[in-house]
Amino acid sequence: MKRNCMVVGIACAGLVVGQVQASGFRLPEVSTAGLGMSNAVVANALELGALPYNPAAMSFHEGTHVMGGLLFVDHSLQATPTGGAGSVEGDNGSVAIIPNFFVTGQIIPQWSWGLNINAPFGLSTDWPANTFPTLSAPATRPAHPAQSKIEMININPNVSYKFNVNTSAAFGVDYYYVKKVKLDTQAVTISGDGDEFGWNAAMLHVNGQWSFGASYRSAVNVPIDGLFNTMGATTELGLPWMLQIGARYQATDKLGIEFDVERTGWKKFNQIIVKSAANGATLVTSTNAWDNANAFRLGASYDLTAQTQLRAGYARDLTGQGDEHFTVRVPDADRHLFSVGLRHALPGDWQVEAAYMYAMVDDRDYATTRPFGTYGSDPNGTAAYNGKYESSAHLLGVGVSKKF
Hints:
The chain is mainly beta. The protein contains one helix and 21 strands.
């Protein structure tokens, strides 16, 4: 695919692509049902909204199904830099609207197909000028972060095979298209795009009241071609691998409970090296040095009536970002997620859904004695970012599905 002008790196500020309500810059809420149960649905063979998390569940849904939804994210980020004038808002104040879509159908009784379209990474931070005193002088302004933003889409076709009435497996291809990347400083504007392929595999087993699921998505290096100032440049954006394992118990005819563990391979997001497109010379080296991180998710559904289902969930997401190379482009921290949801069946095999989640992020007090300049022109992990960081998010999802 031909790529538009893009950058790559931001001299002196590190390549990070935004602050979202989940671990790192990932957005795991890819269906309304998932949002309502805090994403604890990887072992769920009953709900259509589990299919984006575990495509092997397609084998347990007869006929053709179409499902779509919108996720509204209102994120708040505030920093109180050491030595600064007070608290500063680090978001643009707008509500992000993120669509999701899934269609699935049977080829023959044992084989099913599906197409999943969503946005699993993204959102942004936007720091006003002079937020960080150390980087506000004319000589250091090129290192002062401004807007960091990523807009991307994942197009994910899958096939699933049902070995018997209880067990299925799925395989698919992930096409990541990074539509827009902005990595601005107070002195430089940088933007562009890129794309790459990955893969995913999943399984689901139902045994009476119990069901067990697992889903894996590969890590991907998205090549980025574009501009560093006016110079052609190249780099890679590393997206992590993701592993989800879950167990669900149908406690009664009405009540189902699921517990999932997720592991995200954030070590993939280690170092960004920006090179000249003309001669391959290194222009910028920025280190993030994240660690792999875990999330623990608990979700439940209760059939209030034959038409109406209530949902709820809780998750604890742990950050992969340590202190050694902390960056304000993603001032990440551990968080608690609380969610509720509702599904209602309508005549004609229609269903409507709604869900709400509150992300309560732990405050992060960052303090180091490493002066700016320790890592060259990269302020990550230095005293330039000393301060207190507070954030939270409200998420609202709505969706509709139809069986044909």
